[in-house]
Design a protein that fits this description.
301 residues, mainly beta, 12-stranded antiparallel β-barrel, two-stranded antiparallel sheet, 1 helix, 14 strands, 60% strand, flat
């Protein structure tokens, strides 16, 4: 996918952000309780099968994907605390492939606490963000005999990204908020197996030097979340994260944007479209793009 697709999605994010901001009241909606929780669990499956007499071409395959999206919010007086848990894991298998392929793999926790400034929508804030993956990641190829082979590329906690920062939170409602942190520390960790060996070049594995398991950075970050109803039974989540490392190439801003479109058929059946674009020049010199679309079981809790 070409980078201009990401640009279109980013512009869509900005448009929906300002449209949603204009349509809401100027003050936050009061809650009946200081704690509110909301979450969804989705299990999506796609499958295609062809028998040996099928002449139209095609290969039997299946894919499954599980998504958890859970929000916890605290509001009392001048204080607010928002925590979001994201879990997304999927695999696919084609008949002629020896190994399964991952279609998605994400574990992320975002938590922001703030204290209101006067009676405005602005808060002084502190935040923590943690991001890693559930399962091993591989690159695939062929061995000398022409058989399919795979090489371990990543695994749980390798890499893992942790950000902590201080700044200001702008919060229009539970569904519209932006946190700006000019003081952000980031820690990247990995198992030493990924950074050792005679052929390893400093920085090849997410910026870590040879033999190192920890990389520390200091910079600035912006994190935004916008959720709205596109129409009846269709909900759109937009999550945007930006980070600039003051200490090394601050002009190379890391970007992580996710669009999650949920189309409810009924209480238990939904269709889900996920688009994610990541730019991190410590990982690869270009945009990492993924899309997934499926229909499956949906449960709200």
């Amino acid at each position: 996918m070409r980078p201009h697709y990401f640009l279109c999605s980013f512009l869509f994010f900005l448009a929906t952000f300002f449209a949603s901001a204009q349509s809401d009241d100027n003050k936050l909606t009061k809650k009946d309780t200081i704690w509110t929780t909301e979450g969804t669990f989705q299990f999506l499956i796609n499958q295609a099968a062809f028998n040996s007499d099928w002449q139209g071409g095609g290969t039997s395959n299946y894919s499954v994907n599980a998504v958890v999206n859970y929000d916890i919010s605290y509001n009392k007086g001048k204080y607010t605390w928002d925590t979001k848990l994201l879990g997304d894991y999927g695999i696919s298998k084609t008949k002629d492939q020896e190994f399964n392929r991952k279609t998605s793999d994400r574990l992320e926790i975002n938590s922001t606490v703030g204290r209101q400034i006067n009676q405005s929508n602005w808060y002084t804030s502190a935040f923590v963000n943690f991001r890693t993956q559930f399962d091993n990641g591989y690159t695939f190829g062929e061995d000398a005999d022409g058989n399919e082979s795979r090489t371990l590329r990543t695994q749980f906690m390798s890499p893992a990204f942790t950000q902590l920062g201080l700044g200001a939170l702008w919060k229009k409602s539970e569904d519209i908020r932006v946190n700006i942190s000019p003081v952000t520390g980031r820690i990247i960790t990995a198992n030493s197996r990924f950074t050792t060996g005679p052929d390893y070049v400093d920085g090849d594995f997410f910026g870590l030097d040879q033999g190192k398991t920890i990389r520390t950075e200091f910079g600035a970050s912006v994190n935004a979340f916008v959720k709205f109803k596109l129409m009846e039974n269709i909900t759109v989540d937009n999550i945007l994260g930006l980070y600039s490392n003051y200490l090394e190439d601050p002009q190379n801003v890391d970007i992580d944007y996710t669009l999650n479109l949920i189309m409810d058929v009924n209480k238990y059946i939904s269709a889900n479209f996920i688009f994610q674009a990541i730019y991190d020049d410590n990982a690869v010199q270009g945009f990492q793009i993924r899309e997934s679309l499926g229909v499956g079981f949906n449960y709200n809790f």
